Each structure stands twice: as structure tokens, then as C-alpha cells.
Amino acid sequence: MAASTMTGTVLSGTASGTRSGSYGYERRIPRVHRYHWPAIQLNIWMLVMLAASLLIVGVFGTFISVQQQLGLDVPWYFSYYITVSSLTVGFIAMLLWLISQRRLLPSIVIIGAFIFFVLWLVGLIVISIELWGPAGSVSANCERLVNNNVPHGNTPTVLAWLEQRSICQQWQAVFAFALIGTIFLLWIIIMAIQVFYDDS
Fold first, then answer.
1. Whole-angstrom distance, CA of residue 24 vs CA of residue 13
2. Residue from 161, 169, 132 nearest 145 by CA
3. Hey, which residues does 28 pair with through a beta bridge?
4. Parallel, antiparallel, or unpaired: how do β-strands 12-17 and 23-28 relate?
5. DSSP string computed for 4-70
6. Rounded to 5 degrees, what are φ and ψ at 4?
7. For residues 130 and 137, is the Cβ–Cβ distance under 8 A?
8. For the chain, percent helix, then strand, then coil, each to nearest 5?
9. Residues linked to residue 27 through DSSP beta bridges, in sequence order
10. Nearest alpha carbon to residue 92 among 53, 61, 124
11. From residue 1, how far is each of 46, 49, 123 by CA, in Å?
């Protein structure tokens, strides 16, 4: 994937008079600036962010379905993180379009990535509180109901335990990818700043 872009100014000219009454035309050459992005790092960043965003959308979408099936209230951060992750996928799609047009500017990446960094950081903090909160946390329930109670046999109890273990693992996966996504957003900000100063 090509990862460089360029910007330029429009050709312009000025007419100037001479003593003999004729006119001369001065042509200004446009200044074209190219930003050279590290293609491999940029592709890795987009793949990891796509994986993190789609995993969070899938897991929390499943959790919403389970909550509705059980007749329970849906926590606000489920919908919040699904929305943020979906917007992240849209942001990556926009970056791919800009790359194809060779118009990927560092300023666009810095501003967009900073906004998403704040949104992902808020989600990460909320997930951390729910996972390791002081009372009734997901981690405490998983430790008490799953890790310290391992049934065996072909019974409904074992099937229920397997479902509970799956939910605990999904929570851990969401936290891990939320942390990775937040770090990678900070990384792309640093990368864009380096690209700007290297080519300025």
C-alpha cells in the first residue's frame, strides 16, 4: 500500500508592464510537498485497530442481546463502546481513501487520532472499573463462580459453567483489545508528528 501524499498550490501568474508598453508574464511554479508515511507500520496499525474495534463491537453486541434476553437493563457503556468502535472503523476507511488519493496529511491523522484516543481512554477506564471494581466486579464474580468452582460431567450445570467462563474470557478480551487500541492510537499520533517534522 502506498503511504505518501502530496499537496500543492494552484498555478498563478502576474502581469507586469514595461517601459516600452509591452507586458511580461511571470509564472509561479507551485510548491508540491510530499509526506512519506512508513507503509508497514501504518498497515499494521490499521489491521490492529480494525481487529480491536470489530472484536469490541461483536462482544458488546452479544452482551446487549443477552441482557435483553434476560430482561435486564443494558449498561450505557455497551452502546458507547460499540459506537466508538464503529466510528473508528469509519475513520480507518477514511484514511484508506485519503491514502488512495495521496492526500493523507499528518494534521488530519493527529486530530482524528487524538479525538479517538480520548474516547477509547474513557471506555478503557470504564471497562477497568467494571472488571476490577471494589465491589461486585466482573473479575470477582468470575473468580468465585468460575475459577473456584469447576464442575465436570454432561449436565446442565456444566453447560452453564462453560457459558459463564466464556463471558469471563470475553470481558478479558475486551479489556486487552481496549488497552491495545488506546496504545495504538497514541502511537499513530506520535508517528504522524514524526512524519510532519521529518518532511517539513
1. 10
2. 161
3. 12
4. antiparallel
5. EEEE-PPPEEEEEE-TTS-EEEEEEPP--EEEE--HHHHHHHHHHHHHHHHHHHHHHHHHHHHHHHH
6. -135, 155
7. yes
8. 70, 10, 20
9. 13
10. 53
11. 12, 17, 31
- Let me know if 64 is exposed, middle or buried by CB neighbors in 10 A (0-12, 13-18, 19+): middle
**For residue 27, what pLDDT band results from cuts at 50, 70 and 90?**
low
- DSSP-derived pairing of the beta strands 4-7 and 33-36: antiparallel
Please give the C-alpha separations between residue 28 and each of 10, 31, 111, in angstroms, as whole numbers: 9, 9, 32
According to DSSP, the residues that pair with 24 across neighbouring strands are 16
What digits encode the pLDDT tens for the residues 72-123? 899 999 999 999 999 999 999 999 999 998 888 899 999 999 999 999 999 9
160 pLDDT exceeds 90?
Answer: no
Estimate to the nearest angstrom the gap between the alpha carbon of 198 and the chain centroid. 24
State phi, psi for 88 to the nearest 5 degrees. -65, -40
Q: Does 35 have pLDDT greater than 80? A: no
Query: Does the pLDDT value for residue 16 go beyond 70?
Result: no
Residue 21 confidence (pLDDT): 53
- Give the cell for residue 84: 466508538
Cα distance between residue 19 and residue 179, in whole Å: 71
The residue whose grid cell reads 471494581 is 133
Count, residues in the chain? 200
> What is the average pLDDT score of the chain?
83
